[in-house]
Amino acid sequence: MKTANVDGVEVVTEGDRGPVILMLHGWPDTRVLWDAQVAALRDAFRCVRFTLPGFEPGSARRAISFEEMLTLFDRVVDVVSPDRPIVLLLHDWGCFFGYQYAMLRPDRIDRVIGIDIGDAGSPAHVASLSAPAKAMMASYQLWLAAAWRIGGSVGDAMTRTMARAIKAPAPPDRIHAGMNYPYDIRWTGSHGSYRERRPVELACPLLFVYGRRKPFMFHSPAWEAGVAAQRGCEVIAMETGHWVMHDEPAALNDAILRWLATASSRAAAAR
């Protein structure tokens, strides 16, 4: 295992050969979310991961703007794979930021694996949701935004209550209100807002894996169909909840390894 410090963020690399897979987590997780994937992939890939700024337990409370987050990703790639495009493995807010980075820097991205988040928040996605689903989505996100604003022990308790309610697998003692700033930015437009985000249209192959056992989806049927129709892309639905890597780690790992091998051969054939 190798570590590097990039702008105050500890970046961990496991595996010493093959392309880089950069793993980006979401709420309310840290880099340990990907333990099972690292164990399965590190013999053939260099698995790189870090905890998003502000998400580490005990870290200083601060919100990271959209621009700052994408700049951090670029600097991490500079360190771990300066001369070769990488694979992104993404979940939750990691999908949101990772997709945006892939569109900003398509020259640096070979393939993308998105877990459970697609075109969330797009007009097509919002239109596909029922009124109760829209209310449920708004309520949990606004609760977390409020917990960020309140902060301290009360904010932490609010955050852990919500994590327990939605069955997040992260240990409660590692969950805190400092993780919630993306929801505050999303709903209040603070810290520069997310107005600059682009519709999710990737130039590279995408494997999209999602769980069926949820109150609502984080992607639209139209977006799913569009991904499935593109050459080199694939969509897999699993009988899991939002945390596919927790509910079915072996099945997810098998799907990733198979698709990476297939996508690699397709790319070679295209050349």
Overall mean confidence score, pLDDT: 95
Number of strands: 8
Largest sheet: 8 strands, mixed
How many helical elements?
10
- Residue share in helices? 40-55%
Between the first and last Cα atoms, what is the distance in angstroms? 34 Å
List SSEs in N-to-C order: EEEHEHEHEHHHHEHEHH
Kindly identify the CATH topology: Rossmann fold
Low-confidence stretches: 265-271
**What order do the strands of the largest sheet run in, or round the barrel if closed?**
1-2-4-3-5-6-7-8
Mind telling me the CATH class?
A: Alpha Beta
How large is the radius of gyration? 18 Å
Work out the count of structural domains: 1
CATH homologous superfamily heading: Alpha/Beta hydrolase fold, catalytic domain
The appropriate CATH architecture is 3-Layer(aba) Sandwich
Q: What is the structural class? A: alpha/beta
Strand percentage: 15-25%
Overall geometry? globular
Note the topology.
Elements: E1 2-6, E2 9-14, E3 20-24, H1 35-41, E4 46-49, H2 66-80, E5 86-91, H3 93-104, E6 109-115, H4 123-128, H5 131-150, H6 152-165, H7 181-188, E7 206-211, H8 221-229, E8 234-238, H9 244-247, H10 249-270
Parallel strand pairs: 3-4, 3-5, 5-6, 6-7, 7-8
Antiparallel strand pairs: 1-2, 2-4
Q: Can you walk me through this structure?
A:
The chain is an alpha/beta fold. The chain has one domain: 3-Layer(aba) Sandwich (Rossmann fold). Helices cover 43% and strands 16% of the residues. The protein is built from 10 helices and 8 strands. An 8-stranded mixed β-sheet has the order 1-2-4-3-5-6-7-8, with helices on both faces. Helix 2 (66-80) crosses helix 3 and helix 5 runs antiparallel to helix 6. It is globular.
